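Before relying on records like the one below, remember that each one covers exactly one chain. Contacts with other chains, cofactors or solvent are not represented anywhere in the record.
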Amino acid sequence: MTTASLSRVPCTVVTGFLGAGKTTLIRNLLENSKGKRLALIVNEFGDVGVDGEILRSCGIESCPEENIVELANGCICCTVADDFVPALDQILARSPKVDHIIIETSGLALPKPLVQAFQWPTVKSRVTVDGVVAVVDGAALADGQVASDMDALAAQRAADDTLDHDDPVEEVFDDQVACADLIILSKNDLIDSDGSARAHVALGEHVRAGVKVVPAANGKIDSSLLLGLGLAVEDDIDNRKTHHDDELDHEHDDFDTFVLELPAIASPEALAQRVAAAAEQENVLRVKGFVEVEGKPMRLLLQAVGPRVNHYYDRAWVSDDDRRSRLVVIGLKGLNRPAIEKILAG
């Protein structure tokens, strides 16, 4: 191994479908870094930096707030030159020097174009891809699907003559798994042994030979399993076959996203019911954001994948906060925004 390779900063790319549990995994990783000084690039899809805010608010010594960079201008694999490289420059200029960089892609991102950027001379001389980690939803896979609500997606696709390929959600999932060096089967606590077996069988159709699948509950994985793989993935990326290998470029034209502002709410449970109803009636894939609750000094964090909704108070509002209720809504192209807004407004 050369001196130049030793001096390069390793990067771990964490990819995975919407709501699979990437942020939970990364938060646990930051809290258990075993002395490594970490930096984090978070790629949001939408205008509200929910994932970055969750991680920034942790106050984790191994990854201080200034080492967390958010990219909210679109899918990172589509904006490598404009967004990713400047973010990398910003992190590499930090003092003291970071030991390891973690990149959380958006749920819609394809990891291969991102890793290919590490082949650029100005990038390759300074960083290397330590490994690509794909987080997959074990509970969904146990039910024979890659997301929590595939029936609505299939119905929409059947009614849409403009789509020129099979289910785009499946293709994104396949490409993420095909590029992975390690697969984290999340939400293992929500499935029994038979469900776990079904999930492994489903993954077996897409996983490259030799890639391990590791079950996890609540993102708890030993950092030594995720960091320090030393694979230099950028040198092997051409051997990872995906749906988009023959394309010079790609866009996520199959997805729509918008931000909805709401007044302070009276009941988190009632809002959660409305979010679930929007998923069932209007094919919403994901909802996430921060919400103001009447009479409560605490900020409500809401995250939903299909009709599965989670919410909790993550911290108190502070004077610097933009104290508004803002939800990012993500779905397939052609979302009926007025109908969704009406459902969520109640």
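The chain has two domains: 8-239, 255-345.
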